[in-house]
Amino acid sequence: QVQLVESGGGLVQAGGSLRLSCAASGRTFSSANMGWYRQAPGKEREFVAISGYLGSTYYLESVKGRFTISTDNAKNTLYLQMNSLKNEDTAHYYCYALQYWGQGTQVTVSS
């Protein structure tokens, strides 16, 4: 059974940092087609970052330069380093790998 389990969320002040982790089990994923989405209250789920083929990465415009997606294939884990957090980054963050999704982890940024 494939499982993706996110961790690392929490409450942080604006300007602070968090690192989200997404540990995969049940099968091995390559770095391709793994990424992060987020959903804020009352809003639709939106793409945040993706790790593509050959190390390519893509980001939501508003997080470019602040968030970094990375993978550790040996640990079958995906990460999202989030720096210079803003209030508008407050959301439930979900990781995905191919068609699989985690349950998400909450990130709350306070002023």
Offer a concise description of the structure.
The protein is mostly beta strands.
Keywords:
single chain, mainly beta, seven-stranded mixed beta sheet, four-stranded antiparallel beta sheet, globular
Distance between the termini: 40 Å
Largest sheet: 7 strands, mixed
List how many beta strands DSSP finds: 11
Q: Note the quaternary state here.
A: single chain
* Coarse shape: globular
Q: Helices and strands: which structural class? A: mainly beta
What is the helix tally? 0
Contiguous low-pLDDT stretches (5 residues minimum) are none
Average pLDDT, all residues: 94
Strand content: over 45%
The H-and-E topology, N to C, reads as: EEEEEEEEEEE
* Gyration radius, rounded: 13 Å
Proportion of residues in helical segments: under 10%
Give the topology, please.
Blueprint: E1 3-7, E2 10-13, E3 18-25, E4 34-39, E5 46-51, E6 57-59, E7 67-72, E8 77-82, E9 91-97, E10 100-101, E11 105-110
Parallel strand pairs: 2-11
Antiparallel strand pairs: 1-3, 3-8, 4-5, 4-9, 5-6, 7-8, 9-10, 9-11
Give your account of this protein's structure.
This protein is mostly beta strands. It is built from no helices and eleven strands. The protein has strands spanning 3-7, 10-13, 18-25, 34-39, 46-51, 57-59, 67-72, 77-82, 91-97, 100-101, 105-110.
